[in-house]
Amino acid sequence: MSSSPGVSAPSPALMRRVVFASAIGNTVETYDYAVYGFLTVVLSKLFFPAQQPGVALLSAFAVFGVAFVVRPLGSLLFGSIADRIGRKPALVATVALMAGSTAAIGVLPPVASIGVWAPILLVLFRLLQGLAAGGEYGTAMTYAAEFTPRGKRGAMTSRVQIGSVASLLLAAGSVLLLSTLLTPAAMASWGWRIPFLLALPLGLVGLYIRSKLDESPEFRALENRTQVPASPVKESFAAHWRLIVLIFGIAAFQQVGYYIAFTYAQAYLIRLGFSQSQATLATVISIAVAVVLVALGGPLSDRWGRWPMLLGLSAGTFVLAYPLFIGLSSAKSLGAAIAMTVLLGVLPALYTAVAPASYVEVLPARVRATVFAVGFALAATLLGGPALYVSQTLVQVTGDNRAPALFLMFGALVSLVAALFVRRAAKRVVDSEPAPAVSERSREGV
């Protein structure tokens, strides 16, 4: 949204609803993925019991990653809907599909009950999750940013991002609580289902909130000027493929850092000999710190600029990733493990706060949701989804517990290169459109 003087801004009440509506979908999306990640050790025994423990865990990680395979397809589908029909219809569809497929995993019988159909259905529901996730994040961030003046977009999108990170806390907390209250037998029998089933009420709340909101001002302005693209996908690849590559590059560290620091770390600590409860506790504390850092990172990017922070955070991670894994792999006490897990998540959390506004500001409004969704989904598919599997494979192949640092360094290096082009790309996005007026209905927050 333009920040031109004289344009009536949406009311604070509306902005709170926009933030909540955008964040709730990201909360459901990340919660669904995180729950699977935190329960991979349990799920590997239920759905791949005939395999060796290490191979079964790798199989469970592979199923975690399979949801990312279809994310590009979801980005094309829902990104196109958002740019051609509207941001709101895309947001309603993604949250409904995501919540439904996750709840379905919660009622899925294990191999002992239905044989080979158990892992097949698990893969199917993970694919549906991935399809929805392909359009959720980019569309939600686009929607929130289009209500916000440029100078405040970092703060706004970081508030939406808080929902995503806080959902990790919810997922890890629910697994920790159940692991503490239930015996291992009860957890394996039925306790693991509860976190998946919680996605249904979360999704219903998100569906209700999103169905009540108006369309974004920038999309309404495009409609009023009859500038909505007939084929957003075709236009995106024909005229803006370089921007898709740029979004992919910016997202590389966000994807790798996010899943290694806040999901893989739990399984990594279990591999080091800590109990599931201890490993989950360390992850919960790390995520709680990350929530605070995300809240701070967005406003700081409004003050200091996106480019310097993207550059500094990716460069810092490239330098510090290996030393951090040396410390984490050497942790002998729970206190040391918690401290190192928290430190591992600091730079990824700050980067996750800065990146969303950066995506929006280098993209033209006509195809913003599609280019955003496609670039981000490709990064998720090629880097984020395989992060758990690659990290575990590196450890097993090399025999070196510090090896996951190499993948984290790779993601940071890709984003470091991309950050060098962000400032130039943002300058090329010329806002030649008149400022989108905010309707009386929007100003009142109705």
From TrEMBL:
Molecular function GO terms recorded: symporter activity
Keywords: Cell membrane, Membrane, Symport, Transmembrane, Transmembrane helix, Transport
Protein name (database record): Putative proline/betaine transporter
Predominant place of localization: membrane
Protein topology in the membrane: Multi-pass membrane protein
Subcellular locations according to the entry: Cell membrane
GO CC annotation, single: plasma membrane
Phylogenetic lineage: Bacteria, Bacillati, Actinomycetota, Actinomycetes, Pseudonocardiales
Stretches that traverse the bilayer: 54-78, 90-108, 114-133, 160-178, 190-209, 243-267, 279-298, 310-328, 334-357, 369-391, 403-422
Cell membrane recorded as keyword: yes
InterPro entries: H+-coupled_symporters, MFS_dom, MFS_sugar_transport-like, MFS_trans_sf, Sugar_transporter_CS
The protein's role, per its UniProt record: May be a proton symporter involved in the uptake of osmolytes such as proline and glycine betaine.
